[in-house]
Specification:
Elements (H helix, E strand, L loop, with lengths): L1 E10 L2 E11 L4 E5 L6 H8 L7 E6 L2 E2 L5 H7 L1 E3 L12 H9 L6 H15 L14 H13 L5 E5 L7 H16 L3 E5 L3 H7 L2 E6 L2 E6 L1 H5 L2 H8 L1 H14 L1
Parallel strand pairs: 3-8, 3-9, 6-7, 7-8
Antiparallel strand pairs: 1-2, 1-4, 4-5, 9-10
Helix pairs in contact: 3-4, 3-5, 4-5
InterPro entries: AAA+_ATPase, ABC_AA/LPS_Transport, ABC_transporter-like_ATP-bd, BCA_ABC_TP_C, P-loop_NTPase
Keywords: ATP-binding, Nucleotide-binding, Transport
GO cellular component, one term: plasma membrane
Length: about 250
């Protein structure tokens, strides 16, 4: 569904993404992991049309989309969340989601029906009239997800949707993410919560210093010496492998 070919992004003398290539298969949950500052969000920003890369190509469903504006890509079916969630604080939960629904449903009653259904899907069905400013961190994360879902994407980019959540909140939102894939939405996710990556993802790409250093199944990536040295550390890798053994 998505192909990134030899993408490079330079900001003056800084190379944020360096000749990165990756693929996302339709119907999959694909992970993009790596240390802070590795270039993950920059790569997301390129894929979603907010930046044009210095070099390289991005294709969506076989068609080149390099440099196409973000709102055009949203119309084509690419949605994204943002790492720092910024709801419209003066609007209700429903109204925030309606903003996304307006992309394909210009009539307000239609947009509100879709928004209410999406809110139910992500666990905000009982908070429709609440001001967005009253939500907890977990609630705001769900609202960010809902607003992206309301654009009815076929490819959804999730930028650290689990960041800032406690273990029980993470556990509660994992089934929501799986259900999106079951509904036919392909997902590419940046995430630091490695237990969630191992649990959710079919394939994982690892970015370090702007370059892809590994790809494979979660089990393969966790055991990769380059990934251990650049990102996980030996203790975390051992714990993750131990968790997999326990799950098996």
């Amino acid at each position: 569904m998505l192909t990134v070919d030899n993408v490079t992004m330079r900001f003056g003398g800084l190379t944020a993404v360096n000749d990165a290539s990756m693929q996302v298969k339709a119907g999959s949950i694909t992970g993009l992991i790596g240390p802070n500052g590795a270039g993950k969000t920059t790569l997301f920003t390129i894929v979603s049309g907010f930046l044009k890369p210095t070099a390289g190509k991005v294709a969506f469903e076989g068609e080149t989309i390099t440099g196409v504006a973000a709102h055009r890509l949203a119309e084509r079916g690419i949605g994204r969340t943002f790492q720092i969630v910024k709801p419209f604080a003066g609007l209700s939960v429903l109204e925030n989601i309606v903003v996304g629904a307006f992309l394909r449903h210009p009539r307000r009653p239609d947009a509100e029906r879709l928004a209410a259904a999406v809110a139910e899907k992500v666990g905000l069905g009982d908070r429709l009239d609440a001001p967005a400013s009253s939500l907890t961190v977990a609630g705001r994360k769900r609202l960010e997800l809902a607003r992206a879902l309301a654009t009815e994407p076929r490819l959804l980019l999730l930028d650290e949707v689990l960041a800032g959540l406690n273990p029980s909140e993470v556990r509660d939102i994992l089934p929501v993410i799986r259900s999106l894939r079951d509904d036919g939405i392909t997902i590419l996710m940046i995430e630091h919560v490695m237990q969630a990556v191992v649990s959710l993802c079919d394939e994982v790409f690892v970015l370090a210093q702007g370059a892809i250093i590994a790809r494979g199944t979660p089990a393969e990536v966790v055991a990769d010496q380059k990934v251990i040295e650049a990102y996980l550390g030996h203790g975390a890798a051992a714990r993750l492998k131990g968790g997999e053994a326990a799950d098996a």
